[in-house]
Specification:
- The chain is mainly α.
- Helices cover 65% and strands 0% of the residues.
- It folds into 2 domains: 90 residues, Tetratricopeptide repeat domain (Serine Threonine Protein Phosphatase 5, Tetratricopeptide repeat); 69 residues.
- The chain is built from 11 helices and no strands.
């Protein structure tokens, strides 16, 4: 939330949206900002305090050109790098994507891999997935690809589970590898499962498995 800085899951977001007349933050009971100006003012207070989630979010706003922020990919990357240095894994993942796609920076595969590795070390499953794809596609190193995807599957990454299944089908992974990945992925989903998340998962925006 932009007011108190508490992080809520997609299920909680969905539950709040379904509450008739919900106008208060579920944590601090502060009124939810009604305008982009109020929205960003709350974020700016948190950015000044080095709030890593606020810095990341504002970077996303500049990247998408929303919430009163004029689209500025360069500014977004600067904010994501700042957030990454403060420990936000998703910020480093986004910087890696920017270098891979050449978004407002010169395309640089080495830098992309570097930032994905930083994100993966911090626990970002999507970065692990991408590293696995890179190892398979560019390096033909199936063992390293499998290791990345196994770690990501344990963090709930469905794409990695599908990649492991394909390796097994093609004879490049064992039945035990795939079985371990399935169990680990299911354990993650079971741990975070809730009625609110299941309701939210009806929308692709809130898929968590």
């Amino acid at each position: 939330m932009t007011c108190c800085g508490k992080i809520i899951c997609s299920g909680c977001v969905h539950a709040g949206q379904m509450t008739v007349g919900a106008k208060l933050c579920p944590f601090c009971r502060t009124p939810i900002p009604a305008t982009d100006e109020q929205f960003m003012k709350n974020y700016e207070k948190r950015v000044e305090l080095d709030d890593v989630h606020a810095i990341y979010d504002v970077g996303c706003h500049y990247d998408d050109g929303i919430a009163g922020c004029q689209q500025n990919h360069t500014k977004a990357i600067e904010l994501w790098q700042q957030a990454g240095e403060l420990g936000h894994s998703g910020a480093y993942y986004n910087v890696g994507n920017a270098y891979m796609n050449g978004d407002s920076v010169q395309r640089d595969y080495k830098k992309a891999i570097h930032y994905w590795e930083l994100a993966a070390i911090l626990g970002d499953a999507s970065a692990r997935y991408n590293l696995g794809v890179y190892e398979k596609r560019e390096c033909n190193n199936l063992d390293r690809a499998l290791k990345h995807w196994m770690i990501a599957a344990r963090s709930g990454d469905t794409g990695s589970l599908e990649k492991i299944k394909q390796l097994y089908t093609d004879g490049h992974a064992t039945k035990d590898d795939y079985a371990k990945a399935l169990r680990a992925h299911q354990a993650y989903v079971d741990e975070i499962k809730s009625v609110q998340r299941d309701e939210a998962a009806d929308s692709d925006d809130f898929k968590y498995y």
